[in-house]
Amino acid sequence: MSDGYLQTSVYLTAEDRQMLDELQQRTGDSRSQVVRDAVKKIYLDEDSQPSRRTRLIEIAEEIKRLA
Questions:
Q1: Which in 9, 19, 50, 59 has the greatest CB count within 10 A?
Q2: pLDDT value at position 47?
Q3: Which residues have CB under 8 Å from 43's CB, separation 6+?
Q4: What are the extents of the domains in the chain?
């Protein structure tokens, strides 16, 4: 694995999978790119909801700790 990258596992419901497949078709991006873009959007758009942004940061830190 290259430096600067973190491999994660995400378990999707059937509804999540359908939404992800639709986003991949619409954007032409890979699954990983769609997920990265979604995480960035959530993180960057959270200025109006700091508690949700804080929670996302906590989750990211937990993922790093487990990796």
A1: 19
A2: 59
A3: 53, 56
A4: 14-66
